[in-house]
Amino acid sequence: MKNWVVLTMSALALAGCQATPTEQQTAKIETKQEDKISPAPQIDTTPERVLLSPQLIAAEPVIEELTPQQEADVWERIRRQLSMPVPDEARITAQRNYYLKHPAYMNRVAERAAPFMHLIVAEIERRGLPLELALLPIVESAFDPFAYSHGQAAGVWQFIPGTARQYGLDINWWYDGRRDVYASTHAALDYLTDLNSRFDDWLHALAAYNSGGGRVNSAIRKNKRQGKATDFWSLDLPRETRAYVPKLLALADILKNQDTYQVSWLPIPNQPYLEVIETEAQIDLALAAEKSGLKLDQLHHYNSGYNRWATDPEGPHRLLLPRENAQQLKHWLATADSKDLVRWTRHKVQSGESLIVIAKQYQTTTQAIQQANSIRGHLIRAGDYLLIPAASRDLKEYNLSADQRLSATQSQQRGSYKITHEIATGDTFWDLSRKYNVNLRQLAKWNGMAPTDPLRPGRELVVWLTDDSQPSGVTRSIHYRVRSGDSLARIAQKFNVRIGDIEKWNQITRTKYLQPGQRLKLIVDVTRLGADS
């Protein structure tokens, strides 16, 4: 436009040289313009109209508005398509105030969401669903694919086992589809679509996603019987659900009016970040990381549905990788044989070994061994050789496997010291919480479980205890192997501790005899030990 103004002013200057009006003429023109009396419509004194040719007008660039899909930031792509009305409700205001007061939390959430948000948004758009649904994993899990709730819900979409299986998500030793962001996104959108078809109301559908369709249905029927309104805000729902929908609407309101609230979330590039790669068979995650140029923990984070060191032998044989790394893996897979995707170990069956024992030794399953060796039953003979699919690295290097995550969880300091409890038949979290005088939910959380999870005999639980009477010096937790002739009194005297503490630390009583070789846990003050200890 600046160039056009220059052209106009130049032309006016030329015209002015040819006919400069007198001061009297100028005054008459200004008077007529101010009075605006009887303007002549056929005369247009706008410089552009007078001086610009039709060719120049046609050449003026036309600025087209970007579509939401063309925006640089995926948050802006979502913002432009938000459609749910946000009423002036106290519950929404409370949730909005919380999010606005915690910008650092929202940035952490955005950082977690960054790899996955584009694929989620694209799938929501493909189905023609409200874009508010892209914000639901923030409410559900803060976009943590390893999130696990006290109600047995897992993954970014927080599926419980029953609903997960109903919508096609497998849950087994190798794989948990609830934590597979790709699979669980499709399942969650299927579920939400069904709920909306059932209630024909997105707020009711969202409430049902949180607390169940039956509960929402009952609340609606109850209000109808009492002659009350049946909109979400009028329903008698669980406390968590009453806050759940307002959380989503508060997030949508903040995003839609971010200029008003003077906030901005960590930008996420509006372009595909992850690409889906299909392999022909089970693949070792460490090998896939190596061949794609990724760190193992990175690859496992993007593919958090895999519980172990490899993908499920029965499938899915799918990996999500950043696009550049996906191309590297694709190139290697094009020339690799399916037997190259895991390392194979030749195992000679020893007397007394079973498929279960061998599978446990190699961190695999009996089914995988049977499949690899074309074995139909469980009968194996000593001296036979079996091909076993085995991890290419030490199992402790697979930091995001189920076992290593559990180990990390159980090792977090939660009290003065911890003891281990081997689950016996009939044990429940309720009974154990009373036995050790600890909170039931905390006990489950210390062991990466939900209070309603079944307890399998033989599994070890950690119990964190506090002890105000611990020695005040430099304390160490040690293990003492009982020798012939030892007694609790003798050991207590030797290590300058109390018999009652030894009993508590090891969940034993002085009425039972100690056995030579038995290991006892002791928490001792090393500054007070005798020279012969």
UniProtKB/TrEMBL annotation:
Signal peptide annotation: 1-19
LysM domain sequence ranges: 345-388, 419-463, 478-522
Key word Amino-acid biosynthesis present: no
Pfam family, one: LysM
SUPFAM superfamilies according to UniProt: LysM domain, Lysozyme-like
Record key words, sorted: Signal
Similarity comment: Belongs to the transglycosylase Slt family.
Database matches in PANTHER family: LYSM DOMAIN-CONTAINING GPI-ANCHORED PROTEIN 2, MEMBRANE-BOUND LYTIC MUREIN TRANSGLYCOSYLASE D
Protein name: LysM peptidoglycan-binding domain-containing protein
Protein's organism: Pseudidiomarina terrestris
